[in-house]
Fold this protein.
Amino acid sequence: MKKIIAILLTVAVALFVFTNLYSGDSDFKAFGEKSLEETVSKEFVNKTVDPQRVQPETGSANIVTSIVVNYRGFDTMGEVTVLFVSALGVALLGGVLRKKVTFRYKPGFIINQGMKIIVGIILISGIYIFVHGHLTPGGGFPGGAMIGSAFLLMYLSDDKFRTRIAAFKVLEGLAGSLIMIVGLVGLSTGGYFLYNFLPNGEIGQLLSAGIVPVLYVLVGLKVGSEVSNILGDFFIGEVEE
Amino acid sequence: MSQYLYIALMFVGIYGLLSQKNILKMIISLNIMELGLNLFIISTGYIKEAKAPIILFGNEGNYVDPLPQAIVLTAIVIGLGVTAVALMLARNIYKTYGTYEIDEIRGENDD
Amino acid sequence: MSYLIGLMLIVIAFLWQVTLEGFQRKVTAKVQRRVGPRWYQTFMDIFKAFSKSSISHGFIYDFGAMMTLGGTMATVVFLPFSGIVAFNGLDNFFVIIYLLAVGSLGMAMSAVGSGNPWASIGVMRALTQMVGYEVPFMIVVFGMIFGYGTSSISALVEVQAGGFLNWHLLRMPLGAIVGFISLMGMLAKKPYDTPIAPAEIASGPLVEYGGKHLGMLMLQHEFAVFIEVGLFVNLFLGGGGIVAYLIKYAAVYLFATIISAVLGRFKIEQVVYHFYKVPLALSLIQAAVVIFTGLGVEIWL
Amino acid sequence: MINPVLLIAIPLLAAFISVFIQKLSWVLLFGVSIFTAISGFFLQKGMFMIGGWKPPFGINLMIDDYSFIIIIVINLLFFLTLLSGMWELKKNKTILMVILAGINGLVMTGDLFNLFVFLEIITISGYILAASSDKYYSVFKYLVLGTLGSSLYLFGIMVLYGTLGTLNMADISQQFPNVSGSVKIISLTFVFAGLGVEAKLLPFNAWVKGIYGNTTPLTGPLFSTVFATGAIAVFGRIFGQILVPDSTLIFAFIALGLITFIFAETSAMASKKLRELLTFSSIGQAGLIITMFMIGGFYAALIQLINNAFAKTILFSYATKAYKSNGDDTINNMSGLFRKNVMMGFGFTVATLSLIGLPLFFGFYAKINMLQSAFALNMWIPALIILGSIIEGIYYIRLLVKLWNPGEEGQESSELAQSQFVIKNGFSLSLIAVLIGIIFVVSGIIPDFLTENIAKAADSLSDAATYLSTVLGGI
Amino acid sequence: MTINSLIAQGMISSLLVYLLTKLNKKLGAFLTVLFSGYLLFVIFGFQNSAGEVFSLIHFGEFELTFMTSHYAWYFAIVLTLTYFLVSFFNPYWMKKMVNPAAYNMLFMVSMVGTVGVFYAKDFLTLFIFYEIVVWSSLFIIPMGKSRKTPVIYYTISSIGSFAMLYAIFYLYHSVGSFDIQAVSEAMSQAPNTYRFVFFTMIVAGLTKLGIFPFHTWLPAAHGSAPHTFSPVLSGGLVKVGGFIALITATVIPSFKILAGDLQLMGVPFENYLIMLLGAVSIVVGTLMAIKQEDAKKLIAYSTVSNSGYIIIGLMLNDQVGFAGGMMHVFNHAMASGAMFLSFAAIAYRTGTTKMSELGGLIKRMPLTFAAYLIAIISLAGIPPMSGFASKWLIFQGLASNGMMFIALAAFFGSIGSFLYVFRPLSAAFLGQLSPKHKDVKEVPWMMQIPLIIMSFLTIFYGIFPGRILAYISKIQESVGLKGVEIEGTKIIAATGMWDSLVITLVFGGGFMLAAILFFISPKAKPVDQMNTYTSGEFIYDPDHYHYAKNYYATFENNYGNKKRVELFFDAVALRVKEFGEMVKTMFFAKSVSFSIFWIMLFFTLVYFWGDKV
């Protein structure tokens, strides 16, 4: 009975949403039918938000990156903070458990050795991704996540790895502080927080797009260390069965 | 149209929240809902026959809307953070009450 | 001058009512097939009481006795007696009713001040009974006051002038019935003699009294009867000249005596219940008739 | 004059630094809090672009009179909370700094999606702080509802984006009236429900009981004042200025606000524990304030918001301290507790009376303004507000009478019957209580010295044109 | 001296009193005496002032102003007098109080508050001070016996005050002004608005007066308040309700505005309805007072009954009845104040106010007894005390309008009052002295002062009621009524007249006559109280020989023993709580799904309801 009510209710609300969203007189742009001209994005794409700036406004080839890090860099700063807080939270919550993990299995030789090779590759590709965030798809977050996955692999394969969490904490804090400092430097040089105070260079170059790559690298490092932290904290309290 | 499916997916998540009594299942439901939502966000940026918004690829002008992509990036990360906290909470609940079933949790919120 | 008239009224009241009290005892005795005392027996009782020695239970015991007699005598002064009004215009119905209460209060205080629980119980009964009879009576008079626009008793007497057809006994028959029943209650005649109830509570408030205290209370009782019966005569029987007044008075009083002589005694809660069941309803009907239709006041024959 | 970005950037910077310099975190936290509390008064007004990108393309911070006053209030409250919860900070210092940044951002931001990000920052911080009570299931409930709420909010704003192609508040508020009804209803209800979770409106607020009811001296005042004020202020901003609902829908929202108010007050009346009672009172107040925002009584809503926030600081601090010191907060066991700490008792009483809206205290001014603006709409809303106030008054008076007067029922009040409870570490709270108490009394007699800025704030909220021109016309 | 500086002084000195009481308990209490005397003195100076306006402060965009008027002075003087007289008791109770400093402060605040209420020029000021009075008195009550009754008090008070607040803002919304004069003028054009306002605003008056069905707080609060505060509550604060009723029905002239409405027995039906409530409260108050065991509760119920007289008198809005109602304000303040004070005196010496535990105190506390006796004679409306004057006027007013049913209640209450006022007299002062209280002494001289003053005033204005009525006739003329007619000591109503002086003299003469008779007769032999007729039994225990418990048990048998209104209010409170619990279980359930269900339901409802916005 309960489930039926649940289904009915969900379906009812869903139906109402559908009918309202896609009804004839709805202004909502149906799937794929919108035009870029009607959104603020057209200025992002054309890089013509601020006509007084040196063109192109951002040297980032990846427009998504230019939005994420430059036009809406503030969101990114917030999102990094969210991740930071949740990493802290996981640590705090896990701190209650206070028990070191031991796996029921013993990592074998193949895993041990294979890991050493693969981790390097993963780390490097991760770093590559966030360093080239302004040029190619990807960026700080995917890169950071890859770094995190590398460390997950290390956790899984090596019991002794778990001692270096403190280093991540420092890295995390440092990267975060640097992001803020970059923002503040922008404030003091350009008058705006997160102002792009570096030259944009030429689109397509690695050293282009002003502070975008700088920030994205910092974000990548931060995300990587945070993800690693989260994972590390999860391992702390694993209860032995 | 696939956008319908995304909204439907969101409601599937909500249905999960409505009907599930297991904490882990609820976390999964939340994730399903967020997934649907993220897909919906992405879909609002889709433009027919437009390309990824990367200038180097040479599709001058004819890009899909990049803003939803930026937003979804943020949304995903936030979802990740929430899920991490949720999982940790689930572990603490299990540690404290020895169960993941909501009905079996005793000793909270009773006055 | 007014004060002298007042004093005269007090004397008249004393002489007339004490005499009538003697007759009343005689009548009661006759009804009950007894011989009964002589008609001046009550005079003798009172004078004797004043000459005997007595005991005092303290200040309030004495003070209350004085207060009750003084208050009741003061009330007599304000009651119109066959057209004689000591203070012109001050014969207000409410003044009389409430001034009479001074006497009751004094007696109650004095009685309870004696410290005898029987007295307390008697006082309790007296007060309770008062709640019973006063309200219907006042409602009836209230109708009259509204009807004639005056609460002066002499004015209410005047409107009844000109033959017995103008009497309120006939104009307001229900009111008169209520008035009479209330009168019985005021007089504490059977069946409403619950507060005194000699066999039950040893004469209630009077249990401790002797000598001059008793004499004063007896006097007070006579004056109170004079006022109560006088009120009925004035309000329902149209007052009249001195002779007519006295005859009406005697008739009412003896009629009440005869009725009470053959009846038993109510319990106190029965008294209140009784008064609120029939007389109150009748009085309300009477008042409503007067107030809403004018029947009995403006419209009459 | 201080650039408002600093109110976000400096706490965040301090938070990041505190991770690797643990020992300094105590200093950092108080330093940052004092900095924000003071600099709130010297905030530069106007529109501030982040990264120099003009709205609606970039993100902007908006400091008009409205956010100005909210920022001052929130930062002061945060500082007071820190003072009263000084002994409870433990490992939460970093998170507190993040919260400070998040709540400031939440109030100042001029972008709907940015608002979502800040909302998430404070809710996730909230989950973590709430978990310090060890009531994990309650926190989980909060988490589920909070996530659901923010997802609904996100859906709502993405529908708006899909329709209008912009996320900037000013831009949206300009175009919103022309949007078709079906999009309006979707976006409004979803945004309303999403924010309703944080603002504690009735069907969305199941988490509140478990969280507020199990607070510590730190989290109690933090949630009930800082978070609540921030959330409701955002609510007021969005529904008072940006997405102004039409007549039909606003009626539903007002109804919900009033239902929240009255239902929560009845629940509070049925509560036997102090924290739970305060919890429901907070919910009720939130409902009331949101109702006022919805009917357009911005001035009254703001006054009541501030009144409620400062009053709840004392109430929750005291309640949580009493629980912390004695392990119990059943009201019946606390009889005569104020006799032991008269200063706190004074503050508590004044705060309560102000909350009920009795004259001589600031709350009365709020109440008469509420009634005035409610009467401007119709006759039933003020009647319901008054009904709720009666219920609220009853349980608060019951509480006060109990806490001031030890003694068994039917016996003369005497010290002998006094509760065995004590309040530990109460010195800072005593100071706060007396301070706020005096402010309440003084402003209750001469409200002008507080209300001048509030009136400006209310004006700026109802004056959408100025907001638009400041944001979109600027630079 | 102006009213506003007086108020400011009062508020400041209340703080001063608080601090001084902290230093020295007695000192603070003496300061309350001093200040209330000062207040009385200053207020007295405003006797002939009318229409003077004083501005207090700007309260936001509103301005709080005071205006002197005759009716304000009348109420203010009655209340300050009550406060002043009661304050003499304060120094002796400081040791027994749990929080004397707060008591003194709140005592002062409530006193100043009442002055503010009466002199308010506009409704906002009136409401502010009204609420100040409510909460300041509210916090004194729990210092007595009960922690529950203040809540009852607050609940009922707040029903009234919030109804008034609603009315005030409704008026402000429709008239655009808080000013009483302005509202009064505007209302004559808008009888429909006024009709609504009349009923909502008068609720405040009814609650404060303790009119049925809002009477439940009176016995609860008065009965359990500190002994020194009960007289203020009953004699003083209740009259604030009378003032509200006066403002609502007379200062805003209901008899003119509602002249077009259905008239019942000469008054608009609105007034008549309120009078009916007054009548019911007379009956209820009387019946309930009769059966109380605790003297304070008894007096509290008598207050209910007397409030009924006040409201009936005020609602009559005529020449005679209105004057009676107004005069009853004073009479009841003095009488009930004196009654409560005498029982405070008894409690001071014996520690109890339960009638069955007392008895025979007249020998030990004769002055208290005398004060009580005079008070009850006045309260029962027996000449020659002042209480008779007001009752007589009210009866005349009722009679000339033919309000039969209300008169029924009035008569019943009047006769019934004999019952209940006599009971404490009999049970506490008369009868057998309990051995427990053998060594009780008369109260200290300072506590005797108010008793003497109250008794004196009661007698004085009983003999010369014209002194008050002359002022009341000024009030009547200032609100557009015909002033009550007085000739020397004669009071003339349309349906009769009476002369208080003559009655007093005649009564005095009668008393002298009786006294002469008494003293010329043989001297009586004083005997011990236990030396009475005992049906021949030997009685040794005075306690058992004292008839005090269940005094009117037989009478009570005639009516039920259920407090129906209290039960009703309790039931309402219980329902509210149950509803609260239901809300808790419905919306704050343990399961998350539950609230998600509600959210979904909310969406569904919104979409159903406002399909297209």
About this structure: The longest strand of chain E covers residues 53-59. Chain E has two domains: 3-507, 569-609. Chain E touches chain D through 68 residues (CB under 8 Å).
